[in-house]
Design brief:
21% of the residues lie in helices and 29% in strands. The protein is an alpha+beta fold. It folds into two domains: 95 residues, Alpha-Beta Plaits, CATH 3.30.70; 138 residues, Pseudouridine synthase I, catalytic domain, C-terminal subdomain (Alpha-Beta Plaits). Strands 1, 2, 3, 4, 5, 6, 7, 8, 9 and 10 form a ten-stranded mixed beta sheet that branches. Strand 8 and strand 9 form a beta hairpin. The longest helix has 13 residues. The protein is globular and about 60 Å long.
């Protein structure tokens, strides 16, 4: 039995997230359907580095699966891309040790969120960037980003619907924001992320940038450990799973 690691991109617009759901189109269901065809009807289960929600995109998502087939890596990639829909693409396929796990072996993940900060909406970006016409104070936004770096209990910044029962302590190695040509990009690098965590944090960051929330209030929100005291969860279309790191040498 061979174990394969696949790095893939997808446009999440027309998917109900990554994980299989009854009667819905998901990334996992499409990939497993392609693999089942390659295995002449034998079901093949894939395991991901993590789930992405409905409307969330991925530049570099990672999955693994086991297969009895012995096919060169490039042929795997070519065959899968021939069977997959146009909004999913395999970037790399490689054989890995049988002990490898796409989720548990990941040491770092990177997410990026994009905001169009213009007076008028660009309809061609509506599935790929969040639109907010409000004037933003970029200096305050950058200062707010620093508040989220380091090791914290992110209970206030994850969905109340999370299935995680244990610790909500996570470490964010880097949170930073840029603005170029009216597009704001916010980057998150960390050892793990909770359900809706990035989207909730982005909402807080934008409230600070718009003057609706004081910078010092972030410390209070951490201490309260109460999701109800934090603002709305920002929409998914501006969010991308940018990269998953398994060794420190992997950087894109």
């Amino acid at each position: 039995m061979n174990k394969l690691k696949c790095t893939m991109s997808y446009d999440g617009t027309n998917f109900s997230g990554f994980q299989i759901q009854p009667e819905k189109r998901t990334i996992q269901s499409e990939v497993e359907a392609a693999l089942t065809r390659m295995h002449k009807g034998q079901p093949i289960r894939v395991h991901s580095s993590g789930r992405t929600d409905k409307g969330v995109h991925a530049k570099r998502q990672v999955i693994h699966f086991e297969t009895p087939l012995d096919i060169p890596n490039e042929r795997w990639k070519k065959a899968l891309n021939a069977l997959l829909p146009a909004d999913i693409m395999m970037l790399q396929v490689e054989h890995v040790p049988t002990t490898f796990h796409a989720r548990y072996d990941a040491i770092e993940k990177e997410y990026r969120y994009f905001i169009t900060n213009t007076k008028e909406r660009n309809i061609f970006q509506r599935h790929y960037m969040y639109f907010d016409p409000t004037k933003m104070d970029m200096e305050k936004l950058k200062q707010a980003c620093k508040k989220f770096e380091g090791t914290h209990d992110f209970t206030s910044f994850c969905s109340a619907r999370t299935t995680i029962k244990g610790s909500k302590v996570r470490t964010l190695y880097e949170v930073k924001a840029y603005k170029q040509d009216n597009i704001i990009e916010i980057i998150f690098r960390g050892n793990g992320f909770l359900y809706n965590m990035v989207r909730i944090i982005v909402g807080v960051l934008l409230d600070v940038a718009k003057g609706k929330l004081e910078l010092e209030a972030i410390d209070t929100l951490f201490a309260e450990k109460n999701r109800e005291n934090v603002g709305v969860t920002i929409p998914p279309e501006g969010l991308y799973l940018w990269n998953v790191i398994y060794e420190k040498s992997e950087s894109f």
